[in-house]
Amino acid sequence: MAMLTTIRNRSHVFLWALLILFLLSMSIGGLVGGANIMDQLLGRVNPAEAIGSVNGDKITPDQFNQAVTARLRSMQDSGMEISDQYLETIRQQIWNGFIEERLTNQAIDDLDITVTDDEILYHLKNNPPFDIQQIFFRNNVFDREYYMQALNTPGMVDWTPIEAWMRDFYLPRYKLQQIIKMSAVVANDEIKNEFIKRNVDYTISALHIPKMAIQDRVIKPTEDDLKKEYKKRIDSFKEEEKRSISFVSWPKSASKNDSIRTKDEALDIINKYKDGADFSDLANIHTQDPGNQFSPDSGRGGDLGWFGKGQMNKSFEDAAFKARRGSVVGPILTQFGYHIIKIDSIKNRRKKNHQIKARHILLNVDLGQKTRTDLRRKATLFSYDAQDYGLSSAVDSHNVKIQNALNLGGADFFVSKLGPFRSAVRWAFNSKIGDVSDPLETESFYAVFKLDSIMPEGVKPFEQAKNEIYSDLLKESEFEATNLYAEEIKSEILNGSNFKSIKDKNNRLEFIPSDKKKLSGSFISLGKSEQLVGALISSKKGSLIGPVKTSRGYGVVKVENIAKFDSANWEVSKDLIRNDLMAKKERETYGNWMNNLKEEANIVDNRKYHF
Description:
Elements: H1 2-9, H2 16-29, H3 37-42, E1 52-54, E2 57-59, H4 61-77, H5 84-110, H6 117-126, H7 130-133, E3 137-138, E4 141-142, H8 144-152, H9 160-181, H10 188-199, E5 201-210, H11 223-232, E6 238-239, E7 242-251, H12 256-274, H13 279-286, E8 293-295, E9 298-299, E10 303-308, H14 314-322, E11 328-334, E12 337-347, E13 355-363, H15 369-389, H16 391-398, E14 403-409, E15 414-415, E16 419-420, H17 422-428, E17 440-441, E18 445-455, E19 458-459, H18 462-494, H19 499-505, E20 510-518, H20 530-537, E21 544-549, E22 553-562, H21 567-600, E23 603-605
Antiparallel strand pairs: 1-2, 1-23, 3-4, 5-20, 5-22, 6-19, 7-14, 7-18, 8-9, 10-13, 11-12, 12-13, 15-16, 17-18, 21-22
Helix pairs in contact: 2-9, 4-5, 10-21, 11-18, 15-16
């Protein structure tokens, strides 16, 4: 242990980044927080104290919001714009991360996974994690010699935070993964079959019976069939509470005044150019064309390169191709905004391949503050009148239109005709029937809402579930009829008939006279079918196989030829294929393990009270 003690005493460079990573992992991993006894006994989690919990292990609002903020800051630093919809995606990803990390921590505790000093030393010397390797990168490559020097030289690095991270975060998860991976096994037959799929050509002929070819044979579900199926599947029709709202909205669209203001800004830029400013510099400062960004710190000077006629918006093109070399034209209005165009060079003038090289500055016609204030004022005045006199009366006096969004769920994010509008859903579920909201807003709309109705949680009525059940039963019936017809066709073939003569009697069948593919490919008409692949792998030349199920029906297939198995290629490829299949099996095994944990876990989700 002398070496580990020496490592603990090294303090020349303190790896704060790794320490922060470790502390964050403890927060996300469930080492902070917990559930009180009453919460556990009654299955409650106070939304004010926790945004959720996993088997009684709380996720506090601060933990969740800090994780979301860190992700947002990282993305915004890279130049990304975050929309309301994308913010919801980030929150969902963070939520999933918390759930999986808590379940992982609990599994480590349940399995009593511990880490010894010797294991830390072994991995630091022989298998350093990539997170640690990155600290010792030189020219974007891990410098093992430099790393080993730091590991063996007292005073170069303070290894204390690394040791803590290895002991409490990395190695417990590494050991857990090894336990899970033990159940991922790849048999030799799987490897050989995968080689055949990738490398051996199969030539087939076939008759494909799509569902559309047997509609006269399909038995349509009766009302009694639908009712029996409804009773059988009654649990699947359980529904949460639903709420329906009506609303009036005001799109956040730029006004005529915004267009005039943007055009004046463009004229000011042109004047700056005429006063001697460099056009490229002006473009890098003012253009709102995202294609101008070369890197976070530099732009392209508005450069569009060479282009010919028919490649640009017509208004832009007309102005650019009429201009002289060196001239600046604009402002030109297109659907993107106002353009200022500088012509750098011209070639092949008056010829079919006439081209120009140009730069431009794009100014978007955005919603101005005055327009925004006016829209907000309209929504506010409408809200006052609707609250005082009713929505319908206010609609008449304000000359606006009522729209509806029906059957909103408590966790819904979208509102019909408005798009992402989580605040409206939250308002609806915190209101009484007849309530009218203050103005709410998203990136795209101001809106005022009225809660029209509440449908309590329960079971979807038969009449509402009827169409869904009918569609499912009809699909089953179609596949059954298709399969029976395919059996009849196979019997005819075995009794001396052939695909073409059967096709001639029923033009709705799809005849494939010959198709050569590897089994990893998609056969004509039949497409990709696991059932077909399995049947072909075990077949011989001349075999008649089927019926085989496809995404559209059933097929009967004759194996015309199977290419020779390449033994030399097999010897070269089998280890690579084994590794590919093992990696896939390990991912699937881990995914199944985590999904099973989630299904069995007591997960409380209070996000609807916060977002």
